[in-house]
Design brief:
265 residues, alpha/beta, Rossmann fold, ten-stranded mixed beta sheet, 10 strands, 43% helix, 22% strand
Length: 265
């Protein structure tokens, strides 16, 4: 199945197998949560259910992210297609709000309950061989559990959800510390797919924060293992316009050369 996101479709010309568990990793600022939201929208717009486990932000913030791209999440909630598992709001105490679409609440330190809740929702919505599960992100589990427990959780997601039910699972990992890089290295051998994101380092030095992704691994399908530039625009994630990028790089080089010349005089 195709994921419906131009840079990922370029990297995965035949799409992915439905029985895949995929990690999307990278540093902060590369738009990993936006990638997950766009993947969710692709499934929802095809009439396929999505179980979205949100640890990094509130269900309200997730719904607002959908709306920011012109996608109406209320429609999918009303149709029973979008089910949000809230792993964030337990922190809010009396400030916690009731959000339509948030159907269950979990805590990151309870991996067995998280897995049971996801599986219960998939069973209730008869999601077998269709739909997807989103978990954003594994970092919250790492703050509460040791690395072995997190690895066992991911292995269980892959075994029960992706292999047992034929439901694709997408999980994010923000690689901000050495411990998280170690987790990513272990996960690479446990999951079916690994998509890495980054800010292109050479252009970043020029003040151009160009986002890129590479599919490092995807079992059972061909890949184009190249760093593919992408941009987040008003209607989601798109490929970078190469002519505009070239013009921007040329302008920055001209500015840099002009600055050097002024310094020399």
């Amino acid at each position: 199945m195709k994921l419906g996101i131009p840079p990922l479709d370029m990297a995965l010309p035949e799409g992915i197998l439905r029985s895949s568990t995929v990690i999307i990793s990278g540093p902060a600022g590369t738009g990993k949560s936006v990638i997950l939201t766009h993947i969710s929208y692709s499934f929802l717009s095809r009439g396929e259910g999505v179980v979205y486990v949100t640890f990094d932000d509130s269900p309200d913030a997730l719904l607002e992210l959908f709306r920011s791209f012109g996608w109406d999440p209320a429609k999918f909630v009303d149709e029973g297609l979008l089910s949000i598992v809230d792993g964030f709001s337990f922190r809010l105490g009396p400030l916690k709000k009731v959000i339509k679409g948030a159907v269950k609440e979990v805590k990151p330190e309870e991996p067995d309950k998280i897995l049971y809740t996801i599986n219960e929702l998939l069973e209730d919505r008869k999601l077998n061989g269709r739909g997807c599960v989103i978990i954003d992100s594994l970092n919250e589990l790492m703050f509460k559990l040791d690395i072995t427990q997190v690895l066992e959780f991911v292995k269980s997601v892959r075994a029960i959800i992706s292999k047992g039910r034929g439901v694709a699972a997408f999980l994010t990992l923000h690689t901000t510390t050495d411990a998280l890089e170690e987790l990513r290295a272990h996960l690479e051998y446990l999951v079916d797919g690994l998509v890495e994101t980054r800010i292109e380092p050479n252009l970043q030095e020029m003040g151009i924060p160009l986002k890129q992704l590479m599919v490092k691994k995807m079992r059972g399908v061909p890949t184009n293992p190249l760093w593919i530039p992408y941009v987040i625009v008003s209607d989601g994630i798109k490929l970078v316009d190469q002519s505009k990028l070239a013009a921007l790089v040329k302008a920055r080089l001209k500015e840099a050369i002009g600055g050097l010349q002024q310094g020399a005089t």
